[in-house]
Amino acid sequence: MLRFVRRSHSAVDSYFERMLVREDEALRASRSIGASKGFPQHEVSPLQGSFLKLLAETAGAKRILEIGTLAGYSTIWFARVEGIERVVTLELEPERAAVARENLARASLDHLVDCRVGPALDSLQAMTEEDPFDFVFIDADKQNNPAYLTHALRLAAPGSLILADNVVRDGAVVDDASDDPRVRGVRDMATIVANEPTLDATALQTVGKKGWDGFMLMRVK
């Protein structure tokens, strides 16, 4: 007799997290403290955090730029990349930045991270003498994705990777009539990428604890 087992995307995520992800107390605290303070639960999942770390390590990233810090969960993953020299992370809200700094200090990684507070576009505009970044993670307000990508290209170098998160938006990305500024931001970014000869790019859908979404991965030629 066939045995039918009820399955779910979250259950699959939980299985692979138990089997593959080494989420220690510092990472768990980053998630739980952010939740206790009422921060939006927009941080990447443990599997996604591990994926980002592995991707950055595969690319040999020494300098990483993160647009959108929140409580510092993904920042901790980036700061643990083998061979990392510097992570610059941008956060709008002072309270969130303060919590992120505490979480990074708890993980003994604060010496590797420069957390800059204020509107990300202002912080990016002020970055005129930075060494190029090897990896850029775009995970902030989606309506500004086109501008974030423009700055990422300016701050990257040939061979750098740029990853933009949350580009599927429960499938709404295909709605060319959408008036949701977040959807418009993703679509406008995709148009830039499609017409940018210095970029190779792809996009992958994801499903799991974070719902139906996905990311766009770009490599500077």
UniProtKB/TrEMBL annotation:
Signal peptide (residue range): none
InterPro entries linked: Cation-dep_OMT (IPR050362), SAM-dependent_MTases_sf (IPR029063), SAM_O-MeTrfase (IPR002935)
GO process annotations (BP): methylation
GO molecular function annotations of the record: O-methyltransferase activity; S-adenosylmethionine-dependent methyltransferase activity
Domain of life: Eukaryota
Family (UniProt): Belongs to the class I-like SAM-binding methyltransferase superfamily. Cation-dependent O-methyltransferase family.
Protein name, as recorded: O-methyltransferase
Keyword annotations from UniProtKB, A to Z: Methyltransferase, S-adenosyl-L-methionine, Transferase
